[in-house]
Each structure stands twice: as C-alpha cells, then as structure tokens.
Specification:
The complex is a heterodimer of chains A (121) and B (528). Chain A has helices at residues 10-22, 33-43, 59-68, 87-90, 102-120; strands at residues 2-6, 26-30, 47-51, 75-79, 94-97. Chain A has 121 residues and is an alpha/beta fold. In chain A, strands 2-1-3-4-5 form a five-stranded parallel sheet, sandwiched between helices. Chain B has 17 helices and nine strands. The model of chain B is unreliable at 29-33 (pLDDT under 50). Classes of the chains: A alpha/beta (121), B alpha+beta (528). The A-B interface holds A 8-9, 11-12, 14-16, 18-19, 22, 53-55, 58, 78, 80-82, 98-103 and B 317-318, 321-322, 325-334, 336-337, 340-341, 351, 354-355, 358, 361-362, 486-489.
Chain lengths: 121, 528
C-alpha cells in the first residue's frame, strides 16, 4: 500500500516514514498542502496522512481540493489542535489527535483503506 | 450684512423693547428703575447666543425703551450705553468664567454665573444709569442709594430669571434618561398652577392676606428639575416668579410689606432663591447623569478588556497545547517505533539512530518551550533576576554565532564582533542573540550578518538577514507577546517579546530596521 504523509514537521514525517516502511508500505512525503497536492496526483497514494496546520496550504484546503479534483484515497487527519473538527465535518475517513499510539494509527490506516476498497467494489 | 442678519437684529430689538415695556409696567420707585428688568436677561442671552454683533439691537432697543418713557434723549443715551455695556460685560464674564452658554449644566458654573454674571454685570448698568440721571438732573443726590439698589436688583433679576430661561431653551440640554411621562408633566403643571394660584394670585384669599406660605412653591420647583431636567425646571421657576411679580404689583402675596423697598427686597430674594435652587439642582441632575454614564462606559470598557484578555489567554493555551504536542508526537512515534522493532528482532543500528536522533532533538525542543513559558511568567511578574557580570559582548556573540554555524552548515553566517565590554547576564544575553539568529535562520533568507560595535558610549549588537523582510502589517507587532507573524509552526510567539523584555531589563533597547536592499536588521543597544 502506498501512503502519502503530509506534515510540516520534519521529524514527524521522517518517523512516520520509518514506521510505515517497517510495516511494508511505500511512503511519499510532503511538507505542506500544495506539495501534497502535487504528490497526490503524481504518486496516486492509497491512503493520505494529513496534518491540518501547515504553511502555504493547510490540510482543510488540501482535502477539499483533493476530492474536488477527483482524488479517491481515504484521508486520515493527524492533528495537534485542541478541539479538532470531526471526520464527517472535514469530509475525511478519520481524525487522529496528536500525539497518538503508533498501533492505533496503523489500525486506523488499515480500517480506512479497507473501507475505501469496499466502497470501490 | 445679509438679510438674515438684519432680521435677527430686528428680532432681538423687538424682543428687547417688549421686555423693557413689560419691565416698566412693573416700575415702583422711579419710572426708570423697576422691580425686575427683563431686558438685561435678553441682552446677556443675545450676546451669548448670537454674538457681540448684536450690540446695535441692544443699544437702539435700550434707547427706545427709555426715550419713549422719559422723553429725554440725553439721559436715554446714557442709560442705553449702560445697558449695552452691562450685556457685553455679562456675556464676557459668562464665557470667561462660567462656561458660556453651557453654564447651566455644571454646578460650579451655575454658582459662578449667579455671582459674577447675574450679580456682577448689573453693577455696570446701575452705576452708569444712576450717574446719567444725576447728571441730567432727573435724580436728587439723596435718592442715589435706594435707586442704585433698586436698579441693580432689577437688572440682577433679569439676568437671573430671563437669561437662563432663554439660554436653556436655545441650547440643547443633555436628555434625562429617567424623564417623566407626558401624563406626569400634566399632573405637575396642574399642581404648579394650583400652588401658584393659592400663594400669589390676587383672587386667592391666602395671597390677599399675605400669608407667609411662599415655601409651598419649593416642591413644585424641584419636581420638574429632577424629573424633566433644567429646561422645564427653569421655566417653572420663571413662571412662578412672573406670578409672584404680577401679584406683587397688585399688592398681594407673601412678600408684600408696608415698606415698598422691603417688599421689593423680599420679592427679589424669593426669585433669586427659587431660580438659583432650580438651576443648581438642574446642574446636579445633569452632572449625576453624566457621572453615571461615564461609570457605565468604564464598566463596559473593563468588561471588554477582561473578555479580550480571556480570549487571548484561551488562544494562547490553544497554541501552547499545539506546540507542546508537536514534539510529544515525535517522541511517542519514536519510542513506539523502537518498542515495536525491539519486540521481534534486534533493532537495526540505522533505525535505532534515526529514531533516537528526534528523541534527543524533540526533548530539547520541549524543554525550550517550557523554559520560554516560565521566562514569560517570570518576566510578567517582574521576577526575572539577572546575574550581572562584566562581559565581552563580542566574545559572547561570536560563540553563539559559531554554535549556529555548526548547527546550520548550509547558511552563511558572517560575524564582525568587536570586543565591547558591558555588564550583562551572560546566559540571558546569549538567549537574546540566539533568538535573533534563530529568527534570521527561520524567517529570513540569504546570508546572515552578525556584528558587535561600540557606538556613542553604548554597545550595539545587530543580526541582519537578506530575506523578504517583515510584512508592513506585522512590523508594529513583532515584539508583542504571543504574536506570530507566520501563523503556523512559528512557535509560541514569545521569542522577540522575551528578547525585548530581557534587553530592557538590562537598560537597553531593541528595534527592527528594514534596510532598503531587503531583509531585516535587528539592533540591540545596551549600556556599555
């Protein structure tokens, strides 16, 4: 499975890459929403891990534009904001507050990927 | 002179002559000296409301009133001169000392108006008038005393009764918030009419018997002032006074005594007391209302300030929580990753290194955040103590710059640090320099230039970058607490605020310059 990680925090990006690669996924990285849009159209990820507060283009705008342009990968929002909006309001599969347990995040990613696959068939 | 001016002058003239004829109708002792002389009030009000250029109307009016009464042009000229000068003097004194046309909205001004204007200005007219009558042979020297007094009292009555009435109707008074209803106004008018009739009317048995019941008018004098404001209050006082004068000239009412002068003094005393009380209480009512309004405004202001303080604190807590959770996220990710990896196989050295490096850096970052928060709390509570010692700022600065160069090998950092001695807390000083370089690295671009020099007996330290500079709308706020020019990932917005406070604690200052060839130049000046 290919996972796109969009987060402006370099250590978080790098650690997520290590963790996801250890699970056997391939990983693409983006440091802001605009980079993520380019990566999403080029790499065609199966799941997108998305931070909300990012420079240039924030996660909210990325999600809106991504689905507008026909993207269909499920998005898992990872955010440190105090009261994150819920998943349905953001139009994403799940919202995982930071900091999170790695296994919980991996479970959520798997669940969202399964749900997307089920919806596609 | 426009048509409008001519009409105004003629209007004032007509009003003055009318008031004069009314006053003469009340004359008792001498045909030119009366119990109340309303024209004085008209003259003062006209000068205050319409300006000094009304003088021809007053002069001509005064002459006309007198010459048609006495038939003597010479004495009438002198008296007219006195009346005009009296009005001008009254208006001058009112404007100079008693708030001018707004004299009746403040207690202190009311008192000054009564003493300086109403009692002071008539001295002019009484003196010139009496002198004129003597000079023209209309007054014997032995009668000077009573005539001067009567003249003065009459004019003072006009200044006290007529001028405030006209001015209060001409100048918009502050609205009373707790004003009474129309129904109450009607009830009040009825009560006033009844009491005025009983006390003063010629057909009233009490008035005819000179019953000493003049005090009965005070409730109806105070009622309108408190409930409807100074305008209605003054109108009531004037109406009751007019009634008192009307009854008086017909020989009835509580103020009539066998001796005409004694009667006149009593009547004048009654009117002065009634009007003064009404004006004074009216001014107090207005002042109280104004004080209440200003109190309310202050309360509202405080409430808003408190709300925005709470909002700012709330926003700060949100930002702080986000900033603290970000390194925590890396820490938890790294430890989970290591735990997971170590559960099965021995951890690969490269994975170990890649996971441990962020643990080290993010732990330091968390500690810096906590220190910044503590410093802020300390400095806001004035509890940041400096460990001052003699230091070479050049050496300190160079060391911090070298640290940064080692940490960011890709950025070009140029140091030109002269040796400058100053008394500083070296740790706090380094904190400031570190923060300035940190900003230059994060937000600025291009080469970073750092310098220390002696300038006019003070140490100057600067950090300059060649980036995009700071947007105009942010420039005034960069030293504000919690202000972050770049909304995300910019930390807590404490760096420059803390730096400024630390520099100020050292007796120095910090400023941002924006050189024409771009970038930002932060300059710290310290006592050397």
């Amino acid at each position: 499975m290919k996972v796109l990680v969009a987060d402006d925090e370099e250590p978080i990006r790098d650690l997520l890459r290590l963790a996801l690669e250890a699970e056997g996924h391939s990983v693409a990285l983006a440091a802001d929403g605009a980079e993520a849009l380019r990566a999403a159209s080029g790499e065609r990820p199966d799941v997108i891990l998305l931070d909300l507060k990012m420079p240039v283009m924030d996660g909210r705008e990325f999600a809106a534009r991504y689905y507008e342009s026909g993207g269909d990968a499920p998005i898992v929002v990872i955010t440190a904001v105090q009261r994150p909006s819920d998943a349905s309001e953001l139009g994403v599969c799940a919202v995982v507050p930071k900091p999170f347990e790695l296994d919980a995040l991996l479970d959520t990613i798997a669940r969202c990927a399964r749900r997307a696959a089920a919806a596609a068939t | 002179m426009s048509v409008r001016d001519v009409v105004t002058l003629l209007g004032v003239l007509a009003l003055y002559v009318g008031a004069g004829k009314l006053g003469l109708a009340l004359a008792t002792i001498n045909e030119s000296a009366t119990a109340i002389w309303p024209p004085t009030g008209i003259a003062i009000a006209a000068f205050l409301l319409l300006g000094r250029r009304m003088w021809p109307a007053i002069a001509v009016g005064a002459f006309a009133v007198n010459v048609t009464t006495t038939g003597d042009a010479v004495s009438s000229l002198g008296i007219a001169l006195g009346n005009t000068l009296e009005g001008l003097a009254g208006a001058y004194l009112a404007e100079r000392f008693a708030g001018g046309r707004r004299a009746f909205f403040r207690l202190a001004m009311v008192l000054r108006y009564v003493v300086l204007v109403a009692l002071g200005a008539p001295v002019v007219s009484a003196s010139i008038g009496v002198a004129t009558l003597i000079a023209t042979g209309h007054l014997a020297l032995r009668d000077v005393g009573p005539v001067w007094i009567t003249w003065w009292i009459g004019d003072a009555g006009g200044a006290m009764l007529v001028a405030p009435l006209v001015i209060l109707w001409a100048v918009p008074a502050p609205m009373l918030r707790s004003a009474g209803s129309t129904l109450e106004l009607a009830a009040f008018a009825l009560a006033t009419g009844a009491i005025g009739y009983v006390v003063f009317a010629p057909s009233s048995a009490f008035a005819a018997a000179h019953e000493p019941i003049g005090f009965l008018v005070f409730p109806v004098l105070m009622w309108p002032v408190v409930r409807f404001g100074p305008r209605v209050g003054m109108t009531t006082a004037a109406a009751l006074s007019a009634l008192a004068v009307y009854g008086h000239v017909r020989g009835v009412g509580p103020w009539v005594r066998p001796d005409a002068n004694e009667s006149l003094l009593l009547l004048a005393g009654f009117m002065a007391t009634a009007v003064m009380t009404s004006l004074a209480v009216g001014a107090i009512v207005i002042e109280r209302q104004r004080a209440e309004e200003s109190l309310r405004a202050t309360e509202e202001h405080l409430r808003r300030a408190e709300e925005s303080k709470v909002a700012a604190r709330d926003e700060f807590l949100q930002v702080a929580a986000h900033e603290l959770r970000t390194p925590l996220t890396s820490l938890q990710l790294a430890t989970d990753l290591l735990l997971k990896a170590s559960a099965t196989d021995p951890v690969r050295p490269d994975l170990l290194r890649n996971a441990l490096a962020p643990i080290a850096s993010q732990t330091k970052r968390l500690n810096d955040l906590v220190s910044g928060l503590l410093d802020t709390v300390r400095i806001e509570a004035d509890r940041m103590d400096l460990a001052l010692s003699h230091q070479d700022l050049g050496a300190l600065t160079e060391r911090v710059a070298r640290e940064w160069q080692a940490a960011t090998p890709r950025r070009e950092i140029q140091v030109d640090a002269r040796s400058v001695e100053a008394t500083v807390d070296p740790l706090r000083y380094e904190q400031v320099v570190r923060n300035l370089i940190d900003n230059a690295v994060k937000h600025g671009g291009g080469r970073i230039e750092i310098g220390v020099a002696q300038d006019d007996g003070r140490a100057q330290v600067w950090v300059r970058d060649h980036g995009a500079g700071i947007a105009l709308e942010h420039r005034d706020h960069i030293f504000d607490r919690f202000y972050r020019a770049n909304g995300h990932g910019g930390g807590l917005g404490l760096g420059l605020h803390l730096s400024k406070r630390i520099v100020e604690l050292h007796g120095g200052d910090i400023r941002a310059e924006f050189p024409s060839d771009g970038g930002t130049r932060m300059v710290v000046t310290l006592p050397a």
